[in-house]
Each structure stands twice: as structure tokens, then as C-alpha cells.
Amino acid sequence: MATQLLPAQLETDSSPEDPPLVSPTVKLSDGRHIAYRERGVPKAKSNCKIIIVHGFGSSKDMNFQVPQELIEELGIYFLLYDRAGYGESDPNPKRSVKSEALDIQELADQLQLGPKFYVIGVSMGSYPIWSCLKYIPERLAGVTMVVPVINYRWPSFPDSLTREDYRRPLAKLLYWVAKYTPGLLHWSVTRKWFPSPSVMEEKPVFFNKRDMEALKKTEGFPMLTKERLREQSVFNTLRNDFLVCYGDWDFDPMELTSPFPQNQNCVHIWQGYEDKIVPFELQRCISKKLPWIQYHEVADGGHLLVHYNGLREAILRAMLLGEEHHLYRPSADKTVP
User: Fold this and answer.
1) Architecture of domain 23-326
2) Band of the pLDDT at 207, cuts 50, 70, 90?
3) CB 314 within 8 A of CB 325
4) Domain spans in the chain, listed from the N-terminal domain onward
5) Are 300 and 209 in contact (CB under 8 A)?
6) pLDDT reading at 3 higher than 50
7) Three-state SS across the chain?
8) What burial class does residue 58 get, using C-beta atoms within 10 Å of its C-beta: 0-12 exposed, 13-18 middle, 19+ buried?
9) Which residues of 312-337 are buried (b: 16+ CB within 10 A; e: fewer)?
10) Angle (nearest 5°) at CA 308 between 330 and 319
């Protein structure tokens, strides 16, 4: 007899998702409310509980559609939530790298996910995952980061890799503008002459061919429209999230130790070789310095590879079953120090 799925999971891989009008919430110890969404098999009948962490400008309603057969086969329960200030969750004026991990831990405890759970972070949703590896490693059953963002302030990156990277000075400039001239930034991103996110989504300078195809089947970045950015609360959330992600951290991720010292599992990074936002060379550098990370590289993948058909299944099978497909092994045409 097939396992009954939660209603929100009854979707095909190409159908749009309709978010609920009002989502359930939990009240954290500091009084903030975090909205969440459950998918997959019922929690009590699940074999594995996975928390999915959305990225910049996204929400708990992000597309992470997985075939029903795989969900039933592996007994997967998904928990998606709005990070602080996003969607229906209250903002956190004291947001920090550490607070992101503590929010995940408290959410898991209040929803009784048990002593250990899996986490998947997408793009900017990866810095909360690094925080989990630092602050709550004992709670992790398995870890995956998909096209995780790079913070050029991490001291362990060799200068030979970052010196010529055009994204480094751009990130530095955007950080300075966001930190010291927020009013000017807010004014500029809502002007008619400023490229809108919808325009940027159409520009191959940001996305590769497969990304462009994926954008036809997903909502893209609905929180980054000029209409939403005019809302001061939305702008403040995005700005604060950006500043925390790209600011100074109180630890260097490349000095972390494995959360699985007995090799009972590993940490996974999935990266697109053609990603125009995050350089694959730096992801290879991270996995080389941290040999307990299993690095997967999609040869024709861009920054939106989490939306490619078949990739979500591969991501889950790698994390939950230890499967590795030869198609996702990095090529040796380029090396890192």
C-alpha cells in the first residue's frame, strides 16, 4: 500500500506550486514567528527528515519537486521554511551567521524532528548550512549545499585564485554600497533605468543555456521585482541577508572538521561548471581543503541547476544512499592550488 503524501506534495515535476494563503508558524524563544511548509510523507512515517533552506529572494515556496515514487521509496519528509524576514516569517534585527543555524535547530525541535535531521541549502541558503556545520554539527544526519555562494573574505582562499576573479571586486563594491548607502541603493534599484530582475533573468551574462530553459518552468526571483523592492521591509530583509552572508564571519569554513568523524555520512557540494555567479574553481578549492566534502560538478550546469530535471533526484540519492553518478565527477581540465 502506497504511503499517503502530504497534500502539498501532489505535484508533477513541471507543474507550478500554489503557496497556501496562510502558513503554519512556530514561535521562537525570542518571540519571532517562523513560517513553514511540510511536504512528502507524513513525519511520523518518514525514514528521513530533510530541512530545505532557500536562497536570496526566494521562500519556502521554492520549487523542489521530486517524483512521488522516490519520496515513497525513501520515505522522505520535507520541511521548507521562510528564513527570517522572508515570506511569512518575522524579521530578525539581530540576524547573524550563527542565528541562522539556531533558527534551524529551534524549528526542528519545536516540530519534533528528532535528534538528527538532514539539511539542504541552495545558493545563498548555503551560508546557514555552513553555520550548522559550525554550531550544531551533532544535529546533522546529512548535509548538501547546491551552488553555495562564496564569501571572498574567507582567509583560506589562495590569492592566485581570487586575484583575477571579476566577481571579487564586484562583491566588494556591492557590499560597500549596501552597508554604507542603503538609501541610495534602495532608490536606485527601484528606478526605471535600473535593470529589473526579469531583465537580468533574460541575460546570458548571468545564466547559461540550461539556466535559461529552467527559468521558463520556474518563477525565478519573485521577491526581487521592483514592486516588491519598493516595500521597505522586503528591501531591508534582502540587504541584511546580503550583508551577513558577505560580511566578516567569526569562523573560517575551511577550518571546520567533519561532522561525521566515523564516516557514517559526508557533506556534499553540487556545482555547475558553467555557473556564472559562483566560480567552480573556488568550490574545487574548498573540497580539496576539506576532503570530507564530496564534490559533484555538472558539466553543463549553471547557477540554477537545482531546477534541472533529474538533478534533485541525484542530489537526494547521493545524500541519502551514497550514490555517485560518473556524470557528476569534476573533469580534470583545470586544477586548483
Assistant:
1) 3-Layer(aba) Sandwich (3.40)
2) confident
3) yes
4) 23-326
5) yes
6) no
7) CCCCCCHHHCCCCCCCCCCCCCCCEEECCCCCEEEEEEEECCHHHCCEEEEEECCCCCCCCCCCCCCHHHHHHHCEEEEEECCCCCCCCCCCCCCCHHHHHHHHHHHHHHCCCCCCEEEEEEHHHHHHHHHHHHHCHHHEEEEEEECCCCCCCCCCCCHHHHCCCCHHHHHHHHHHHHHHCHHHHHHHHCCCCCCCHHHHHCCCCCCCHHHHHHHCCCCCCHHHCHHHHCCHHHHHHHHHHHHHHHCCCCCCHHHCCCCCCCCCCCEEEEEECCCCCCCHHHHHHHHHHCCCEEEEEECCCCCCHHHCCCHHHHHHHHHHHCCCCHHHCCCCCCCCC
8) buried
9) bebbbbbbbeeeeeeebebeeeeebe
10) 60
Beta bridge partners of 144: 120, 268
User: Cβ distance 59 to 124 under 8 Å?
Assistant: no
**Residue 78: closest CA among 104, 107, 49:** 49
Are 75 and 44 in contact, with CB atoms under 8 Å apart?
Answer: no
Give tens-digit pLDDT for 38-77: 999 999 999 999 999 999 989 999 888 899 999 999 999 9
Burial category of 169 from C-beta neighbours within 10 Å (exposed 0-12, middle 13-18, buried 19 and up): exposed
